[in-house]
Design a protein that fits this description.
The structure is a single chain. A seven-stranded antiparallel beta sheet has the order 4-3-2-1-7-6-5, covered by helices on one side. It has two domains: 74 residues, Acyl-CoA Binding Protein; 107 residues, Roll (PH-domain like), CATH 2.30.29. The protein contains six helices and seven strands. With 190 residues, it is of the alpha+beta class. 36% of the residues lie in helices and 25% in strands. It is elongated.
Length: 190
């Protein structure tokens, strides 16, 4: 669906494009992720033929309508609007400490993680950016502080838990803190 909408946005109506003298080379367009070619046994030309046949069926779709349809479909994706930041979590000497538990500030940096920030809250990912390990909504976060590469989340609730992690660069920790405040104000106060 995204591929045919992309073609409608970029080139307009298929029949009008073919009737003009412009040549169409879809091989140079990134219409599908490589995993599609690897998972489903179709040749590249078969894939492009199917996409073009779907594009031809959308002849009445204007570029503006295609763009709106593309955005509507994108909003339904779980990762829409998610900004990722590479981080490291802090673990204590106790091996049972996990990301979900409050963290002792005298701990050391260990595993690499990803922090995802979007309109719903923050998510912590391990290797796979598709399934978050931990999720906090914006209203669960009382405050955020950043010192150099270290970011500390102070949580609301009875336990007043504290979570801390390190960003790869101090500029990233400042960007994370800024994103937190912008989204926290927008989604929890307004």
């Amino acid at each position: 669906m995204f591929s045919l909408l992309f073609l409608s946005i970029k080139f307009g109506d298929y029949d009008q494009l073919i009737s003009s003298s412009d040549s169409l080379n879809l091989e140079s367009e990134a219409l599908l992720p490589l995993s599609c070619f690897q998972k489903i046994e179709l040749s590249r030309s078969d894939w492009f033929d199917r996409i073009v046949s779907l594009w031809r069926t959308q002849a009445s779709l204007t570029r503006e309508e295609a763009e709106l349809a593309y955005l509507k479909h994108a909003q339904d994706l779980d990762m829409f609007g998610l900004s990722f930041f590479e981080i490291s979590k802090m673990q204590g000497a106790n091996k049972s400490t996990t990301l979900c538990q409050p963290i002792d500030m005298t701990t050391s940096i260990t595993a690499d993680l990803w922090l995802g920030i979007d309109s719903l809250g923050i998510r912590f990912y391990k290797k796979n950016k598709l399934r978050p390990e931990v999720f906090f909504s914006w209203c669960d976060i009382k405050s955020v502080t950043a010192h150099d590469k270290k970011v500390i989340l102070n949580m609301t609730g009875e336990k007043n838990a504290t979570f801390a992690f390190y960003a790869a660069k101090s500029s990233v920790s400042k960007e994370v803190r800024s994103s937190f405040f912008c989204l926290l104000i927008f989604f929890c106060i307004i």
